[in-house]
Every structure is written in structure tokens, then in C-alpha cells.
Amino acid sequence: MPPQGDQDILARFLPPVAAWFRQRYGALTPPQRLGWPAIAAGEHTLILSPTGSGKTMSAFLWGINLVAQDLLDYPDLEGVQVLYISPLKALNNDIARNLREPLHGIRETAHQMGYVLPDIRTAVRTGDTSASDRRKLVTTPPQILITTPESLYLLLTSPRAREILRTVHTVIVDEIHTLCGNKRGVHLALTLERLGHLADKPFQRIGLSATQRPLDEVARFLVGQEWAEDEEGREQLVSRPVTIVDAGTQKDLDLEVRTVVPDLRRLPGGSIWPALIPDVLTNIRRHRTTLVFANSRRGAERA
Predict the structure, then answer these.
(1) pTM to 2 decimals?
(2) Count of alpha carbons within 13 Å of 260, Cβ hemisphere only?
(3) Which residues contact 183 (CB under 8 A, 6 or more apart)?
(4) In the predicted model, what is the mean pLDDT of residues 154-168?
């Protein structure tokens, strides 16, 4: 049974979504425990947490929940609702773990509970997407679309394709650290502002990364700026409000500097290797993981 705090957070989800998560994962991870309240409140949210800690699931599962709820309320719901942007074209593993597996599991759980849950359409649009799949994207839009920054730009430049993006209410930017501070990131920032002008209403932005610093700068990049009046009625650009979820971990280090010989100026046989190699072997046998670095090509080959 998940802790009471976890149960309170999961109570915000549809019953089959929450039940599947409990069966599949049990307790919430830090990015989920800290991130879901802000995401559920509709706040722009930036999540920092280590790889494999469930941060992508934090964004995807709430998106799935929102789409399912919208389809229950409006069965004829059309257009893209959740837009997932990744700078990586190799998305298959992430999509399988964070989208296809939850969708399949939630449908199975809903069936077991006797809960009628509508089907959710998904699609991937990258530079490798075939022409027939691109046409299908326009004629039968998915509720959840996975794409890259460049493919999103192309969608927005197409008179027909961009119409399916008017309904977007959630945008997830994964691996955001690879976009900050470079031309690709600037291009995406402009693309998101174009999407903001196209969309029927303001959309929520969720940023994810395991290695992003400084967080306040990354957060400002994620949400962009908007015009607002100051106390004197003058318009000025201000950053949109954003919630920063720092679920990073700091590992304790046990650091020791030592040498295998008492004096490096007087090496037995003129080489350190006869003393070093047995010492390295001893450490390899003593520990589960050992990294060996050598400062010369010859030394690396011998190590």
C-alpha cells in the first residue's frame, strides 16, 4: 500500500490510471511526488531528477490522464492535446516505456475494473516518418503526438498540418539541457511562441532533464516571456511563472588519494607497473565496479 501522501496524489487520477500505477510501480518516486501536484494544478513545471527516476512518466501519465478525461467528457474530441518534444530522434525506448506500456496497462486495468475507457490515439512525427504516415497525421490526428523540435517547426509551417495543433494544452520538452544555450534551443523557443499564438488557449509547459543547471535559467528558457503591464501601466516583457522541482540527488563521496610506491623517484626496475597492476587487480576483485584510467597509450594498453 502506498504511503498516505502518495494515495492523496494518486486520487487526482482516474481510477484505472491510479490503479495501474499502484500495481506497476507501487510508491511514487521523488519527481512524481514533488511534480504531480504542480502539474495537476496546471502550472508550468521544470523537473530535475536523475535518469531512471520516473520524471518522464511524471509528465506522460498526467497527460494520458487528461486526454482520457477529456475523451470521457467529449467523445468527439479532435486534434493534438499533448505534444511531447524530444531533441533525440531515437525515441522508441522512451515511447515504449513511458507511453505505450502505460496505455496498454491502463486499458487492461480499466477492463478488469469494468471501467469504460476510450482509446487514445498516438503518433510519432520525425524526419524519418513516411509520407503516408504524415498524411494520416493530418487526416486522423492523434491525441498525443511525439516529435522533434525540427519536425514541430515543419508542422507549424504547413497550412494543413498546423491546424491539428490548435488544440494543444500540454507541451513536454524532454532532455531540455541539450537545447539551452544553443541555436537549436533558440529555434525551439521561437517555435513554441508561434505555437502559443496558434493554440486556442495557453498551454502548459513541462521541462525534463537529469543534468540541467542553473535551474532558474533553464526554467526561464522553458516558459519564455509575455507582455504584462507594470504598476505604471507600461507594458514590458516578463518571464511566465514556473514551478521548479529539484528532485536531484547528491551522492556521498569517499575519496582517497594514494600511491603504490613510497617514492615515485625511485621505482623498482624503473617502472611503476609491476607494483600498480597487482594493486589494480586487488581493487577490481574487492569492488563491484572499477574504472581504470591511464595517462598514456602504452599504459592504457597494459592496463
Answers:
(1) 0.80
(2) 15
(3) none
(4) 96
Q: Averaged over 210-225, what is the pLDDT?
A: 90
Distances (CA, A) of 219 to 51, 195, 209: 19, 18, 11
Classify 34 in phi/psi space as left (phi over 0), alpha (psi -120 to 50) or beta.
alpha
Alpha-carbon distance 219 to 6, whole Å?
26
Give the cell for residue 244.
521548479
For residue 147, CA distances in Å to 70, 130, 151 come to 22, 14, 6
Report how far residue 54's alpha carbon sits from residue 35's, in angstroms, rounded to the nearest whole number. Answer: 11
Cell matching residue 249: 540527488
d(CA 24, CA 36): 17
Q: Give Cβ neighbours of residue 81 (< 8 Å, ≥ 6 apart).
A: 63, 66, 67, 70, 143, 144, 167, 168, 169, 170
In three-state secondary structure terms, 302 is helix
Task: Retrieve residue 38's grid coordinates.
Answer: 504542480
Residue 177, amino acid: H
Residue 297 amino acid letter = R
d(CA 248, CA 63): 23
Q: Which residues pair with 201 in a beta bridge?
A: none
Beta strands in the chain (DSSP E): 45-48, 82-85, 122-125, 144-147, 170-173, 204-209, 225-229, 235-239, 243-246
Set of cell numbers at residue 34: 514533488
Question: What is the rounded average pLDDT for all residues in the chain?
Answer: 88
What is the rounded distance in angstroms from the CA atom of residue 68 to the CA atom of residue 138? 21
Determine the length of the chain.
303
User: End-to-end CA distance of the chain, in Å?
Assistant: 50
H/E/C letters for each residue in 58-81? Answer: HHHHHHHHHHHHHHHHCCCCCCCC
> How far, in Å, CA of 245 to CA of 50, rounded?
12
Between residues 293 and 14, which one has the greater pLDDT?
A: 14
Q: What is the pLDDT of residue 1?
A: 52
pLDDT, tens digit, 9 for 90 and up, residues 128-145: 889 999 999 999 999 999
